[in-house]
């Protein structure tokens, strides 16, 4: 993988992993409710489950792209459009809810399985494989999965560590708007090199 493409992929992985979404909001709430140490299995489930998802999606997409090459362009276009929509949603998002999680933090296997029903995870996996492993080679797919594996865990850990403090900061409307606008712009910028 060329250095420029690898840096672009790392930026894409960082921005998509660190921006608000179901995983990060659940991890933030878990960190606030249960602390960092008790939330570690949840974090490992998100990072490991997503890395596996990227690899499996990539392996499956390789065969589809070989059989139907036009699907690559269609999927790439759809992913870019969805990510632009996601950037808009991030830029205009409201403060996270005040509800408290009941009982216990999510377990490792539960968090790993959650990736398969998380629309942001699907968009991230499909976009990453489509944009950064365009030839569909196994090496490229595994490289994309490895970069996400390396970037995802530290990114989601930030949400757990900040926990309740981040919730207070983001509750201020002005700060929330600035944060969300910055994350939306970074998400759009991470896609531009692939266009």
Count all strands and give the number: 0
Instruction: Give unreliable regions as ranges.
Output: 98-102
Shape call: globular
> Approximately how much beta-strand content do the residues carry?
under 5%
- Which bin fits the share of residues in helices? over 70%
Distance between the termini: 17 Å
Q: Biggest sheet: strands, sense, closure?
A: none
Using the CA coordinates, give the radius of gyration.
Answer: 17 Å
Q: Provide the succession of SSEs.
A: HHHHHHHH
The structure class reads mainly alpha
Give the structure's gist in a few sentences:
The chain is mainly alpha-helical and 195 residues long. The protein has helices at residues 3-18, 22-34, 36-67, 70-91, 108-114, 119-132, 138-171, 173-191. Helix content is 81%, strand content 0%.
Characterize the structure shown.
The protein is an all-alpha fold. It has one domain (3-95, 104-194). It contains eight helices and no strands. It has helices at residues 3-18, 22-34, 36-67, 70-91, 108-114, 119-132, 138-171, 173-191. The model is unreliable at 98-102 (pLDDT under 50).
SSE blueprint:
Blueprint: H1 3-18, H2 22-34, H3 36-67, H4 70-91, H5 108-114, H6 119-132, H7 138-171, H8 173-191
Helix pairs in contact: 1-7, 1-8, 2-3, 2-7, 3-5, 3-6, 3-7, 4-6, 4-8
Structure keywords:
single chain, mainly alpha, 8 helices, 81% helix, 195 residues
